[in-house]
């Protein structure tokens, strides 16, 4: 895994941390605890939030809508759902099976998206506070 | 069924119990700290936990109940399978990673993160205990009912003894193995269950010339309902009311799964959020395969055994899968399927016992009674004592509920989880202003409305299949309350928050949001 680059949102720091230079640039308060307010408003964190939202909001709405459609059709459009498609396999059973298929597809898509777009960004945000923990 | 058959069932089951107890014993050597007992020291990998997650989730209701529901009601039974697969997307995208990052051992850790500790933890523990107990009694009662079929035990006393044995073994798992031992039991059981179910499915499909359509054809011929079993409406299509009941059930299934306390607690057994995500990915695959197989097994049982024979068997609907196994593989396969069904019940109740005991010891004892300053060793001791008490309660409840309609107890647990836990979890993770009053209102609002609606529903009184068939105080017409109690709980949480009480703490909110997404401050790598 590549080391996360320092964020552009904070002042430039020397390339190496040394013992005589406390980490003023890091988002840590006086006691060495992470400064959550500062992190929450940092560009890197806001970017992470945007990336998370960009996937989970549409994906959640999509699968819920698709599931509710299936349930409502089963309840109120039994005629349509019993139209045969392949032999005795009808629309309803096919749609039901497709619910399982789409669940697996969305799951894999989320796993892939997280690995490519979320995890690196999480590492970036963590780099804002983590120099000390990494040394320890 | 014959005596030889009982001997095979008993010996396969006995081997499973001995094997798992040995594994639990081996896993337990360092089982001392609170983190070991509750979360197996967070030492499992995502893959292991994903398999265990499916083990925890696939209860007897899933295996015997669903294949039976499909074998008798066809399409309407399949609804359960779909709801329980789709539900994992909520766990995956909205809950698992944030829960792992913000909590340590229980659901209460997350709900109380930025709220006043004592009342919220007490509420979370109440909800966990109620849900776990309902779920557990359903499983134990199921165990008793199954015995009639599987071990040829027909006397009530004989069944009570078997329920007690199941209870004692499960408490042993928990006491000896803690979370680590219980997790290994789940893994062994999940692998056995999935293997059995997939082999049975492959065999069935092969028997019908790899043509699913011909299984359905045969099934429809053998069913008294004919082609109608392949279409929606057999069970829930009768009236407008029953259609709403169907929608209510579908909602409870999809929203309840990812907020069942024993499912939530599983996410703490892995070291970080990425592994938690990986667990859900694994679990989703296992569920997708398992529930697809139930479709074939259910219709296969309808085709080969016939609905009438299933309905008149001692276990009723629940006996579809075992009867099918007997039909295709004789006594040996029946023995294996029965043993797997037992293992399933045993493992699920062990997981529930652990969750209930953790919630009481960690939330109520350590945080409410001792104000967060309990000695960790003492806390684990309390957890163990609670496990024994919960075990006793479950045995007594299981014996009392033996022979009752157990499906509604399971559906009730899902409706309860979807009403009391899901709105609270989502609000506290995603809504900035959410405060202590909102939390309490949504937990108790969901929990009490759901329990009350169930008490006054046809599941309890007023119909032939209810718990008290002779009394009639059912003024709520739906047997599943989800469609009312879930929105009610969301509303209660919203109103409680905007009406007043103390303002949400912005510093805590910042900490929770940052920590939930990144794990900063959690000490997790």
Automatic annotation (TrEMBL), chain A:
This is Uncharacterized membrane protein, DUF485 family. InterPro entries: DUF485. The lineage of its organism: Bacteria, Bacillati, Actinomycetota, Actinomycetes, Pseudonocardiales. Pfam families: DUF485. It comes from the Bacteria. The chain crosses the membrane at residues 55-77, 89-111. Keywords: Membrane, Transmembrane, Transmembrane helix.
UniProtKB/TrEMBL annotation, chain B:
Keywords: Cell membrane, Membrane, Symport, Transmembrane, Transmembrane helix, Transport. It is a multi-pass membrane protein. GO terms for cellular component: plasma membrane. InterPro entries: Na/Glc_symporter_sf, Na/solute_symporter, Sodium:Solute_Symporter. The chain crosses the membrane at residues 6-25, 51-72, 78-95, 123-151, 157-175, 187-206, 246-268, 280-305, 332-361, 382-401, 407-429, 441-461, 481-499. Pfam families: SSF. One of its GO terms (molecular function) is acetate transmembrane transporter activity. It comes from the Bacteria. This is Cation/acetate symporter. It comes from Lentzea albidocapillata subsp. violacea.
């Amino acid at each position: 895994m590549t080391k996360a680059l320092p964020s552009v949102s904070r002042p430039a720091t020397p390339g190496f941390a040394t013992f005589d230079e406390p980490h003023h640039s890091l988002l840590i308060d006086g006691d060495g605890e992470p400064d959550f307010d500062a992190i929450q408003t940092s560009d890197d964190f806001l970017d992470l939030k945007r990336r998370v939202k960009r996937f989970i909001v549409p994906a959640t709405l999509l699968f819920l809508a698709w599931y509710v459609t299936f349930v409502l059709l089963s309840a109120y459009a039994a005629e349509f759902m019993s139209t045969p498609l392949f032999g005795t396999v009808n629309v309803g059973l096919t749609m039901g099976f497709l619910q399982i298929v789409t669940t697996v597809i969305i799951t894999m898509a989320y796993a892939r998206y997280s690995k490519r777009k979320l995890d690196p960004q999480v590492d970036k945000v963590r780099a804002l506070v983590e120099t000390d923990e990494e040394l320890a | 069924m014959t005596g030889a058959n009982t001997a095979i069932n008993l010996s396969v089951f006995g081997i499973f119990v001995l094997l798992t107890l040995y594994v639990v014993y081996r896993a337990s050597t360092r089982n001392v700290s609170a983190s070991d007992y509750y979360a197996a020291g967070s030492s499992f990998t995502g893959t292991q936990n994903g398999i265990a997650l499916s083990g925890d989730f696939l209860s007897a209701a899933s295996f015997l109940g669903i294949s039976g529901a499909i074998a008798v009601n066809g399409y309407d039974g399949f609804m359960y399978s779909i709801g329980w697969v789709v539900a994992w997307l909520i766990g995956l995208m909205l809950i698992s990673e944030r829960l792992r990052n913000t909590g340590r051992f229980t659901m209460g850790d997350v709900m109380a993160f930025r709220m006043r500790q004592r009342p919220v933890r007490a509420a979370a523990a109440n909800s966990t205990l109620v849900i776990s107990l309902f779920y557990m009694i359903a499983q134990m009662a199921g165990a008793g009912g199954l015995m009639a079929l599987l071990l040829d035990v027909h006397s009530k006393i004989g069944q009570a003894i078997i329920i007690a044995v199941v209870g004692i073994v499960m408490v042993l798992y928990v006491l000896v193995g803690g979370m680590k031992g219980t997790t290994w039991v789940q893994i062994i059981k999940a692998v056995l269950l999935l293997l059995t179910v997939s082999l049975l499915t492959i065999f069935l499909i092969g028997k019908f010339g790899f043509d699913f359509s011909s299984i359905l054809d045969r099934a429809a011929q053998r069913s008294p309902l004919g082609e109608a079993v392949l279409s929606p409406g057999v069970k829930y299509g009768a009236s407008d009311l029953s259609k709403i009941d169907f929608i209510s059930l579908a909602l409870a299934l999809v929203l309840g799964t990812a907020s069942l306390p024993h499912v939530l607690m599983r996410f703490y057994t892995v070291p970080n959020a990425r592994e938690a995500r990986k667990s859900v990915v694994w679990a989703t695959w296992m569920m997708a395969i398992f529930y697809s197989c139930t479709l074939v097994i259910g219709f296969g049982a309808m085709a080969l055994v016939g609905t009438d024979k299933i309905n008149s068997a001692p276990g009723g609907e629940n006996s579809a899968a075992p009867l099918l196994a007997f039909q295709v593989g004789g006594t040996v396969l029946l023995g294996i399927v029965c043993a797997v069904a037992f293992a399933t019940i045993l493992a699920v109740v062990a997981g529930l016992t652990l969750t209930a005991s953790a919630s009481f010891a960690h939330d109520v004892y350590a945080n409410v009674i001792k104000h967060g300053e309990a000695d960790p060793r003492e806390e684990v001791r309390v957890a163990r004592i609670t496990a024994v008490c919960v075990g006793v309660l479950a045995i007594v409840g299981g014996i009392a509920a033996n022979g009752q309609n157990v499906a509604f107890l399971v559906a009730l647990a899902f409706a309860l989880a979807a009403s009391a836990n899901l709105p609270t979890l989502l609000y506290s993770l995603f809504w900035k202003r959410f405060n202590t009053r909102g939390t309490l209102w949504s937990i108790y609002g969901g929990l009490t409305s759901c329990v009350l609606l169930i008490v006054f529903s046809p599941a309890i009184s007023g119909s032939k299949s209810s718990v008290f068939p002779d009394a009639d105080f059912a003024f709520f017409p739906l047997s599943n309350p989800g469609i009312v109690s879930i929105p009610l709980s969301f509303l209660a949480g919203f109103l409680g928050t905007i009406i007043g009480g103390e303002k949400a703490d912005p510093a805590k909110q910042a900490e929770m949001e940052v920590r939930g997404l990144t794990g900063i401050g959690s000490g997790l790598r």
